[in-house]
Structure formats: structure tokens, C-alpha cells
Write a structure and sequence with these properties.
- Helices cover 29% and strands 25% of the residues.
- The protein is α/β, with parallel strands linked by helices.
- The chain has 2 domains: 184 residues, FAD/NAD(P)-binding domain (3-Layer(bba) Sandwich); 137 residues, FAD/NAD(P)-binding domain, CATH 3.50.50.60.
- The strands form 7 sheets. The chain has a 6-stranded mixed β-sheet with strand order 5-2-1-9-20-19, covered by helices on one side.
- The mean pLDDT is 95.
Length: 379
């Protein structure tokens, strides 16, 4: 009986497991295939929704579901943490001391903010990439009556357009409250433009100029001085702030390094088309954990999960893998509180940014509410 083990119950992990389970329902029921999902979290968290929490546009209760409720009934769920992956033995050791053997493994371990990598940030700044951070930022916005907001972006980070979205939403939020004339907005980015994707950077710079937002490039976040209320860069520039919103650098799960599988930053070396871990045809990687030159975003995990699931269905039924990932990315980009645009690209086709519209904004809001069906491979 072939055994599939999925580590991680985020977007990529849930979609892979559910897609395979729905395709192989008879095999699962008859005991001819086994699927296990291992995660140290028993609650799924819809991370893109955190962008809206600081503006009181979504409640935390709207962003969570029990993992078990999102899994196909034929899937075994183990609430535990993977401590070590023995790729040679095809075995995973967990924190509780359990051993999980597999024939095929999916690493959907995601990424997390590394706040401590920036001295002073924990005490002097805010962020919205965690629930606690988003709630703290919500309280800060409720108190904000004007002053200088600095958006300081660190690299790498997931949901790459989210810092731009927050900045545009904040700009409009201050205008609606009648405090934009008392507010200065500074956006910093580590390279020579406003975003790592050239087309997005050009579009954002034009929007910044139109809206009176200051852009500071070549600003690599080095440290925060909470007492002086100042954020400093490796290049020697600094800004005083009244409100600092930072995007901490991200890193992959420590189990990658501890298992001898991860590279710098704990990212996993992944084949850009097959999504196999380097030198391991029985291991697949989806979502933020890869080292691929595509965005660390939910849509990427979605498209990768579809490819991996199809290949696993083949492998679990004795057929060779047949699908390849083409680098497809699709990201909505809020351009304020009621308009949005989107970018779509792949390995061979660069993105083009269309003018924002209300229709795209409402498409994004709709997706926020049907996302649960995608996770369950229902749509």
C-alpha cells in the first residue's frame, strides 16, 4: 500500500492532500492508498486576510477553520511537529516521538517572519504578517491622528505585493478620515525600485508620485531604535517615524536545516518544473518553502499544488508523473479601499499591471470568502 505523507496544513498542503484524496476515494476506502497530513497547527489561518484586520475590514474569526474540518474524510490528520526528516529511510520523526514512514512526501512547510533578525523591530515596529501583529497594528491605527508612517520592507517575504497594498490602503484610509494633510508616508525598498518585479515597481512609483508618497530605494532594513523612533538602513540612511510598519524578512522551517535539506534561509532546492526536491524524486515541495524564482504567495501554492497532486495521483496508482509547473502566478493587488488590479505571469511571460477597478476589488473580496472551497478541492 503506497503511503503519502504531507507535512504542513497551509494552502499547498491541504490542496495537495484533498485533491489526491478526491481522485482516489475508492483506493482510500479500500485501503489501497494511505494519506496522512502532519502539522503542528490544528487551525488553518487564511493569511491574506491579515491585510484587512488593521483597517477593521475583516475580523480574526473570519480567517480560521479547524484543519480537520477542511480535510477529506479519508485523510489521517496528525497534530504534531516534524522534527527530523530522514530522506534516505523515507521516515519522519515528530516532537512527540512518533515515527511516520512514507513512500511519497510533500513538504508544504511554509515560511515565517524573522522579526528578531532586525534589532529593535520587535519593540519599535508593527507588522501585519501574524495575527498578533495585525491586531497590534489595528490598535495603533485606531490611535493614529497624523504624523509620519514609514513602511520598511525587508527581503525575502511572502505575499510580495502586500506592502504596496497596505500603503495604498493606508493612504486612502487617512484621506477618508480627513488626516491626509497631517500625514507623511514613506515607502522604503531594498533595491533600485519599488518592487522586485519591474512592471510592478514602475507602476507603484507612478502611483506614489501621484498620491504624494515618498519612495526611498536602496534601503536595506538594518535596525530600529525604539527610543529615538528611528529606522536605519545598511546604506546609512535613516527615517524618524511616528508609526513604523515593517515587513520582516522571512525564513523557511528549521526542520529543513536540521534534516540537511535546506539552503540559505532554510529554503528547499526545488526543480522549477517537476517541483521535486533536488535529488529526491519521491519528495515534492509546494508553496513558500521552495527556492524558486517566483513569488511566495497563496496563488503559487495553489498552482503548484495542482501539478503535484496530479503527479502523485499517477505515482500512487503505478503511473509515471505527467504534469509540469510553468511558474504561473496570479496576485490581486489592492490599490486602495475599493479598487484593485492584478498581475499574472509565468516563467516565460512577464506581468503587465492593468488600471485598478472596483470590479477587481470585489473579485478579490469574493475570493477571500470562497477560498475554503479551493482548499477542499471542491472547486
Amino acid at each position: 500500500m503506497p503511503r503519502l505523507l504531507v507535512i504542513g496544513a497551509g494552502t499547498g498542503g491541504l490542496m495537495v492532500a484533498n485533491h489526491v484524496a478526491r481522485a482516489l476515494e475508492r483506493e482510500l476506502a479500500d485501503g489501497r492508498v494511505a494519506i496522512t497530513v502532519l502539522s503542528d497547527r490544528d487551525t488553518y489561518f487564511y493569511q491574506p486576510g491579515l491585510l484587512y484586520v488593521p483597517f477593521d475590514l475583516m475580523r480574526p474569526s473570519e480567517l480560521t477553520r479547524p484543519v480537520r474540518s477542511l480535510l477529506h474524510r479519508g485523510i489521517r490528520f496528525v497534530h504534531d511537529r516534524a522534527e527530523r526528516i530522514d530522506a534516505a529511510a523515507r521516515r519522519v520523526q515528530t516532537r512527540s516521538g512518533a515515527t511516520l514512514d512514507y513512500d511519497f512526501l510533500v513538504l508544504a512547510t511554509g515560511s515565517d517572519v524573522d522579526v528578531d533578525s532586525v534589532p529593535g523591530l520587535a519593540a519599535g515596529g508593527h507588522w501585519f504578517y501574524t495575527l498578533d501583529g495585525a491586531l497590534r497594528l489595528r490598535e495603533a491605527l485606531r490611535r493614529f491622528q497624523g504624523g509620519r508612517l514609514v513602511m520598511a520592507v525587508g527581503l525575502p517575504h511572502k505575499c510580495p505585493v502586500a506592502p504596496l497594498e497596505f500603503t495604498f490602503m493606508f493612504d486612502e484610509w487617512t484621506r477618508r478620515r480627513g488626516i491626509r494633510d497631517k500625514t507623511e508616508i514613506v515607502y522604503t525598498f531594498p533595491i533600485n525600485r519599488a518592487h522586485s518585479i519591474e512592471a510592478v515597481g514602475i507602476w507603484a512609483a507612478e502611483e506614489f508620485e501621484r498620491r504624494g508618497i515618498q519612495l526611498e530605494t536602496f534601503f536595506n532594513l538594518e535596525e530600529v531604535d525604539p527610543d529615538a523612533r528611528e529606522v536605519r538602513s545598511l546604506e546609512g540612511t535613516s527615517f524618524r517615524y511616528d508609526l513604523l510598519v515593517a515587513i520582516p524578512p522571512h525564513k523557511g522551517d528549521r526542520v529543513h536545516k536540521e534534516s540537511g535539506l535546506g539552503e540559505q534561509g532554510n529554503w528547499l532546492p526545488t526543480d522549477r518544473h517537476t517541483l521535486n526536491l533536488k535529488d529526491h524524486p519521491e519528495i515534492f515541495v509546494v508553496g513558500d518553502a521552495t527556492n524558486l524564482p517566483v513569488s511566495k504567495a497563496g496563488s503559487v501554492a495553489h498552482f503548484e499544488a495542482e501539478v503535484v497532486a496530479e503527479n502523485l495521483i499517477n505515482l500512487l496508482t503505478g503511473e509515471p508523473p505527467s504534469h509540469l509547473y510553468d511558474g504561473k502566478v496570479f496576485c490581486f493587488l489592492e490599490a486602495g479601499l475599493d479598487k484593485a488590479t492584478f498581475i499574472q505571469f509565468d516563467y516565460d511571460h512577464p506581468p503587465v499591471v492593468a488600471p485598478p477597478t472596483q470590479a477587481v476589488h470585489w473579485f478579490k473580496q469574493t475570493y477571500n470568502r470562497v477560498h475554503w472551497l479551493n482548499l477542499q478541492a471542491i472547486v
